[in-house]
Amino acid sequence: MNQIEKKEGITDSRKLGMPKFFILGVQHLFAMFGATVLVPVLTGLSVSSTLLFAGIGTLLFHAVSKFKVPAFLGSSFAFLGGYLSVKAMGVEQGMTETLALDYACVGVFFAGLCYFLMAALIKSFGIERVLHFFPPVVTGPMIIAIGLVLSGSAIQNCTTNWPLALVALVTVIVASIYGKGIIKIIPILLGVVISYLTAVVMGEVDFASLEEANWIGLPFSKEQTALAVWENMDTTFLISTIIAIMPISIATIMEHIGDMCAISSTVDKDFLKEPGLHRTLMGDGLATAFASLFGAPANTTYGENTGVLNLTKVFDPAVIRLAAVFAILLSFCPKFACLIGLMPAATIGGVSLILYGMISAVGVRNLVEDSVDFNSSRNVFVAALILVIAIGVKYGANDEVNIGPIHFSGLALSAIVGVGLNAILPGKLGMKIKSVHGKENSHH
Fold it and tell me: Which of 140, 141, 320, 329 is the most exposed place for a label (fewest CB within 10 A)?
């Protein structure tokens, strides 16, 4: 981050005042909403429960990470294959889809516990030894791949109504570049609101279902939680579920490290050192384990909100916590969840084009700032395979790679390949990683 950006970055919400603080919290809520509710929509899990435990999980993460990391935790897409696979297996054995998903949630619970194991290893052996396997030549392309893989969903949403998408896109750009005062720091929210209102004027939104939705309701029922598994447990199926889903945590832990690198680079603070990667891993794992018990998807740090941080230059974690409180409150309001659910896909797509692109830009900046040597063949191989595998698998015929019962997303597989290649290929590993103060730390 250059010196101008450092001066513009706001790390204390008291400098903003309550109105701006409130609106920025709403903006982060909108940034995460579309992707967070998409996972339950695709899997059959509860949307309201997802919102509730995205908020609770975010607050748990902040508490464990000493309230220092401005990250929002929303639904993880990495476990989609696991949910769908277990649901299919359960239906084949005569289970209802809801009960099969309850078993899958138990598997995700054990995957969340794996984060604690990794955190213990980091605490025991030190962050330096772990970072030895994650130099910029690995983390940079991983961050780039995250943005590029997400970009497909943005384009897909935009194609549903390009005029609406362009309204959102242009509003974000104009507000960010030419806006003054509060307008300049809420471009995403403005893009969403103006595009949504445009859709209403164009007659693109049908509010019939909104009238039928209740104002207040519980986010989940007992049948949608892991408690349902214990009533008449199929031990064999439960073990198969755990075996199928737990290994996915290896990939999501790697993605977590990439996300922490992205947030650290965006905020210009080394969160891997303070509060420490072991703490952020425990926070992520705790949020995932807790959410899974109540029928919500696995949680993960959200790139969409990192994009908002990069755009607004407001880095105070308190803003993220406010968004988490909003998510919790809204989980008890089916009518509001319905209203947001009616938001045109093109509106979400328009703002996502900006956010996903900025994630990839952060990865490019990491490679440039750390002077990764691409005259070195080993570095080219590592970076190239990470990018090609992540994007190729995502947009290939199956959207995933199956190894036995385990489903690997493109991001997961590329992370494993990148880390493995970097470890075994001869040559310098590029372990001199610049700290946020410009000094170099040699990792041995």
Answer: 329
Handedness of CA 82, 84, 85, 91 (dihedral sign): positive
The DSSP H or E segment spanning 356 is helix 345-369
Asked whether the beta carbons of 62 and 69 are under 8 A apart, the reply is yes
What does the alpha-carbon distance between residue 330 and residue 400 come to, in Å, rounded to a whole number? 33
User: Mind listing the pLDDT tens digit for each residue in 100-112?
Assistant: 888 999 999 999 9
Fill in the amino acid letter for 116: F
pLDDT tens sequence across 28-62: 887 787 678 767 866 778 888 999 999 999 999 99
pLDDT digits (tens, 9 = 90+) for 267-282: 888 898 889 999 999 9
Calculate the dihedral angle through the C-alpha atoms of 317, 321, 324, 328, rounding to the nearest 10 degrees: 170
Report the alpha-carbon distance of residue 348 to residue 419 in Å, rounded. Answer: 33
240, burial (CB in 10 Å: exposed 0-12, middle 13-18, buried 19+) = middle
Q: For residue 105, give the nearest of 140, 76, 69 by alpha carbon.
A: 76
DSSP string, 224-251: GSGGGGGGG--HHHHHHHHHHHTTHHHH
Residue in the structure block whose two tokens are 């897909």: 156
Q: Say what the alpha-carbon torsion angle 169, 29, 331, 54 is, to the nearest 10 degrees.
A: 110
Strands 440-442 and 432-434: antiparallel
Rounded to two decimals, the pTM is 0.69
pLDDT digits (tens, 9 = 90+) for 309-320: 887 788 889 999
Pairing, β 299-301 against β 440-442 = unpaired
Q: Can you tell me the distance from the alpha carbon of 163 to that of 347, in angstroms, rounded to the nearest whole number?
A: 9
User: Is residue 433 scored above 60 in pLDDT?
Assistant: no
Residues 8-20 have pLDDT tens digits of 566 666 677 788 8
Q: Percent helix, strand and coil across the chain, each rounded to 5?
A: 70, 5, 25
Backbone angles phi, psi at 426, to 5 degrees: -70, 160
